[in-house]
Amino acid sequence: MKAAVFREPGVEMEIEEVSIDTPGPREVLVRTAAAGLCHSDLHQIDGHYASPRPTILGHEAAGVVEAVGSEVSRFNKGDHVISCLSVFCGHCRHCVSGRPYACESGEMIRPQGAPPRLSTGSETIHQFYHLSAFAEMMLVHEHALVRINPAMPLDKAALIGCAVVTGVGSVIHTARIEVGATVAVIGCGGIGLSAINGAHLAGAGRIIAIDVVPEKLELARRVGATDVVNARNAKPVEAVREMTRGGVDCAIEAIGRVETIEQAFEMTGRSGTAVVIGMVSKEAKISITANDLLGDKRLVGSRMGSNRFIADMPRYVDFYLDGRLKLDHLLARHIALEEINAGMADLRSGTQARSVILFA
Questions:
Q1: Does a structural domain hold residue 26?
Q2: Which of 82, 85, 219 shows the shortest CA–CA distance to 152?
């Protein structure tokens, strides 16, 4: 199969012929239909995070089941599926306590000594986030997939696998906002726009979108923002606190910068919650004041929107088909696999939402 192989930071990916193994007992072979380009992939390319290499990046995908392993009962050939990097074992302490997104079990990967799922000749190609979606096919553990309504367009379904489940989940699951709450979202890329849409779905009374790109702020209005702040022309903390007379109930940081994380915390009011969903540097130090903590304010992280993707994603599909989840606005353009490096350059520029690779 054809795949975009990532070998070194700062070096463009090349389209290579990669061998993919047959499904093991609990594995599923999926023909990839669409894969979104996400900043999590870009962080690897730019060297900000490191995974074993060579690898095939990509984790936001949808496709059609080609074959299943001997012990798989949840899927059949022809099923339409979405993948998710929150692959889970189902029986560790995190899974059984309702936090499958925090699963740390390693049993969903092949044991040492087993043939690799992906290879080129004698060279092992490492799997990225258990998925590796920038390829014509994926071979994954069954707990990395969920079956969806075949009426759902697969290019839009791919976006649910990361941007939507993270953004919507950060509001609904992590922050657990109340109906009528005031919400601010810093960063109007794919995940930030999904958080805005999620706040609208959850019944927020006022939703303030913050970015420096006017086109993204216009997109934010289309998916549910009631107000916008251009951070290039105004100080976002002062603007939000003035608009809400003291601060929002919940602020979502969807960029991954120390400065904007601190701004999110500062723009929340008493008993407010700031939720970080942007990927910040692992060594970053965040500065907050003790007085704010005494005001019952919270700064929390969110791993993939605290999702329960087996339950969440089919609901999001229904929301899209009902017209309540505005995925059409997230998708900036379709590209071919051979255009992936140009697509990553566009993502790096920060001027548009999501590009999605369409496979023939």
A1: yes
A2: 82
Q: Is residue 96 domain-resident?
A: yes
Task: Select which of 40, 86, 132, 306 is catalytic.
Answer: 40
Q: Is 40 a catalytic residue?
A: yes
Single out the catalytic residue among 59, 80, 141, 200.
Answer: 59
Q: Do 198 and 108 share a structural domain? A: no
Beta bridge partners, 333, equal 355
CA 64 vs CA 129, 141, 320, 355: distances in Å: 19, 15, 19, 20
The question of whether 39 is a catalytic residue gets the answer no
- Quick check: is 84 catalytic? no
Q: 340-356: string of b/e by CB count within 10 Å (b at 16+)?
A: beebbebbeeeebbbbb
**What are the tens digits of pLDDT across the range 164-208?**
999 999 999 999 999 999 999 999 999 999 999 999 999 999 999
pTM score of the predicted model: 0.94
Which long-range contacts does 210-214 make (Cβ < 8 Å, 24+ apart)? 210/184, 210/185, 210/186, 210/236, 210/240, 211/186, 211/187, 213/188, 213/350, 213/351
Q: And the tokens for 317?
A: 């599909």
> Which CATH number does the domain housing residue 185 bear?
3.40.50.720
95 among known catalytic residues: no
Kindly state whether residues 73 and 128 are assigned to the same domain. Answer: yes
Residue 94: active-site member = no
- Establish if 154 belongs to a structural domain: no
pLDDT tens digits, 87-138: 999 999 999 999 999 999 989 999 988 999 999 999 999 999 999 999 999 9
Give the separation between CA 222 and CA 330, rounded to whole angstroms.
Answer: 10
Distance CA 151, CA 63 (A): 13
Q: How many domains does the chain have?
A: 2
The token pair that represents 156 in the structure block: 């839009």
